[in-house]
Amino acid sequence: MSINESSKKAKLTRKITGGKVFDLFNVILMILLMIICIYPMLYVLFASLSDPHLLMQHKGLLYKPLGFTLQGYSLVFQNPSIMKGFLNTVFYVVVGTIISVLLTAMSAYVLAQDDLLLKKPLMLMVTITMFFSGGLIPFFLQVQRLGLRNTRWALIFPTVISAWSLIVLRTAFKKVPKSLIESAKIDGANDFTILFRIVIPVCKATMAVMVLLYAVGQWNSWFNALIFLDDRSKYPLQLILREILISNDMREMMNLPKGSAQFIQADAYKALIKYSTIVISTLPILCIYPFVQKYFVKGNMMGSLKE
Amino acid sequence: MESMEQVSTKPDNKKKKTKWEMLKKDLKKNKCIYLMAIPMIVYFILFHYMPMYGVLISFKDFNPRLGIWKSPWVGLKHFGTFFNSIYFKRTLKNTALLSFYSLLWGFPAAIILALLLNELKNEKFKRRIQTITYLPHFISLVVICGLIVDFTSTDGLINSILSNFGVEPTNWLTKPEWFRTIYIGSGLWQSIGWDSIIFLAALSGIDPSLYEAAKIDGAGRWKQMLHITLPALAPTIIVMFILNIGGLMSVGAQKVILLYNPLTWETSDVISSYVYRKGVQGAEYSFSTAVGLFESLIGFTLLIIANKLSKKITEESLW
């Protein structure tokens, strides 16, 4: 009896210490994962603030900026290509998001109706597009046929409503109390008034998610610009970034005064501009991200759940 | 508008009339609502259904001047050309391998991360890790690929670390044998946190009393995980797995286009990047549409097979 009990006790202590070892290991692993996830961005931030010559000679990881300079940022802000791209992106984000959210809300309101004769075919029309698409080339040709090629609208209309967002918003609209809508109808409100005065204000949180989803999507999007735009003056920032980062095409970017010290040491400044542009283009996302993360997570969940 | 006609023309004459009248009544009653539906209908027809109709050009020799309908039919010519080209085997193999390895590494990694997060006792710490691991999901692809290009270049971060161990610096993105590793490794970095969300949600739905009962029965944490957590997670795992199988033969063009170059085509060129090169850059519209259609057909077949299998084995299915 006593032997049995003591062995039980030993087992229990082993379990506890085993658990503690596991906990410790788990915490270390998670911290490591955090570092891996965040370090690349930190490296870029440190590099963008570093003295370009020190940076070129430096080998290995950076733990803090080497020296300190804001030259990279001032070069970026003086650069007409990058600034133009930045302003273009702001235009695409603002105009695109407004139109997208408006149209998505209207469409979601239609699909959220209970007694609409054509509700089913309309719903089917949307759902089918989540499974089937014509593919890249027919889509490309269609945009071209509509005369949108090389216009700013090519970055807005071809992706103006996301079927997934539409379904998520519809689910939210369906939860608005019917009594609210009925009483407004009795007061003689039409559907536009009901949508904008009642349904949207009630679903503020989901609407906010929609705004952020579309805005971040526009901010990060580059592929449609790549295939639809020929005119550099309409390029969004991401496409300019691609030239700087991927194609390493900085001839037009550098814009350094000829014969200056900076011109001679172009290579060093190239790296600096590169890192500063990354920081500037990613900063807006990083700034709003902590506040909106939970909404995105919610959105992700809503979309993945079976109806 | 099209769907309206479909509804009304199906039944016989008598029914048709009443249906028409019902529809008219409905249109009148819900005038405002149908007005709101117009932009949506126009959008989906213009940018989704017209391109679907445009797939027809994969069976024709498309001539922009004649339009889709009047361009001459050529049957399966373009498919034949693709199957007989050296690109067929290469892009098919690369697509299959890239997506297979992504699934092989990424799918279990997300589940393991969710399980490990679930074992953490400090809620605040847990939330902090989540916030940081979701972050890469929101950084633009261009920036991510730009970082990859920068870090893997000859004088980049990776080489400067490796030089301490006596490794000769090389430009890793010009080495075909390294492309898959770079693509999948960075993919893991981008998505491990985000992909774990769905599993974490399923975990939070588990009834805590189950764990209490198990503890009383003397089950340790490992046993609890094996007998409570994993079974509770199984339906989610299966549904996500089916979805992933459906996507097994489609590797998005965007990341590949940003990372590849002719030196690595041997391992990096996938079907979608080939479609982009042939169609958008080379203006071989009919041919590239055929190649794209081939890819979506495989994807759809895989989805159906995976769904059937899972229905048989586990009763879980997408539809």
TrEMBL record, chain A:
Residue ranges occupied by any ABC transmembrane type-1 domain in the UniProt entry: 86-284
Cross-referenced PROSITE patterns: ABC_TM1 (PS50928)
Record localization: Cell membrane
Residue stretches spanning the membrane: 21-46, 90-110, 122-141, 153-173, 194-216, 272-292
Signal peptide: none
The entry's keywords: Cell membrane, Membrane, Transmembrane, Transmembrane helix, Transport
Pfam family, one: BPD_transp_1
Membrane topology: Multi-pass membrane protein
Family: Belongs to the binding-protein-dependent transport system permease family.
Entry-linked PANTHER family: ABC TRANSPORTER PERMEASE PROTEIN MG189-RELATED-RELATED, POLYGALACTURONAN_RHAMNOGALACTURONAN TRANSPORT SYSTEM PERMEASE PROTEIN YTCP
Name this polypeptide is given: Carbohydrate ABC transporter permease
Organism per entry: Tissierella simiarum
Automatic annotation (TrEMBL), chain B:
Membrane spanning stretches: 32-50, 98-117, 138-162, 182-204, 225-249, 285-306
Domain of life according to the entry: Bacteria
UniProt subcellular location: Cell membrane
Main localization category: membrane
A Pfam family that the UniProt record links to this protein: BPD_transp_1
Membrane topology: Multi-pass membrane protein
Keyword Nucleotide-binding: no
Alphabetic keyword roster: Cell membrane, Membrane, Transmembrane, Transmembrane helix, Transport
Ranges for domain ABC transmembrane type-1: 92-306
InterPro entries documented for this protein: MetI-like, UgpAE/MalFG_permease
Family to which the UniProt record says this protein belongs: Belongs to the binding-protein-dependent transport system permease family.
Protein name in the entry: ABC transporter permease subunit
Taxonomic source organism: Tissierella simiarum
